[in-house]
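Table S2 (text version). Query chain:
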Amino acid sequence: MSENQLEELTKTTTNSALKLVPGFILVVLLTTLAIYISSIQWFIDMGLGVLTLAILLGIIVGNTLYPFLKTICDKGIHFSKHYLLRAGIIFYGFRLTFQQITDIGATGMLIDAIMLSSTFFITLWVGRTFFKLDSQTVILIGAGSSICGAAAVMATEPVVKAPANKVAIAISTVVIFGTISIFIYPWFYQLNTHYQWLNFSQETFGIFSGSTVHEVAQVVAIGHTLGSDAENAAVISKMLRVMMLAPFLLLLSGYINRMEAKNSSNNQAKSQITIPWFAVFFIITAGFNSFHLLPESFVHFIITTDTVMLAMAMVALGLNTHVSAIRQAGVKPILLALIVFIWLMAGGLIVNQVIQHLLG
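Corresponding structure-token output:
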């Protein structure tokens, strides 16, 4: 490479990097605000974590101030949404270890697997058959409800290649019904303790909560209300569901590629298999973390950094989400999420009681 070519390449790279700065600054400012708000006790008690608040702030600014800034901020926003999301999902693995599987045993694993698969397929069936919703919206709602809320929706978005408004719709269902769970689950636990309808201890109710509630923050809020035994069991059960995100994405990617190949106008042409590599690295990260090779303080730093990256991706998503597009989607996605929410509670109760009786 000649000196002139190297100079031209350096200049081009510098110009491209500078174009990212305005949007990146906007994302950082809103993320900082979301982190501050999430530390306020009222929001903590409501189970509204930093990721939920980040997308809400993004939506507010995206529908007021951002249209005037879009031309100079668009590239930085796209970078945050695309690359920081994938990096955030990979480093999410540092929250998990394979030892957590053995902590709740075969009972918790089986309950989580049944609830994840049944919830996702019920969402697909009801959404497509009765509400006639498009596959992208249905899959995103199914992923958020069956695995780990907003993080699962965001991780699924690159696989299904969904636009920002559909991602926001799916996340809004997680916010609505996950927040409702924070009030219903402790209330039901107290009633059940008084009337002894079902055989639930703090630990088994924690597993029930972890296997059926949408967001990690919402599970923590519920468990903390009930007691330490319930909180520990709930968090471990929930994190096991989170660990199932990577194999879910791999299976979903394979399914979508098969459907695209099947529906191709050229029967001879085969679509290229798309592997969500960030999901593979997510598993590798969790596996590495299982050996506890890094100091705990450094792992805590990585987790904190990861939360910031995911929050920045959420802000970027919100900035590209238009309320008019969500409004045009109508009530069908909310009704679908309501039906899935009822299944998570009622079906989850049945599954938990049956499995606990057989294997407990």
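Notes on Table S2: Confidence is low (pLDDT under 50) at residues 267-271. Residues 3-38 form the longest helix (36 residues).
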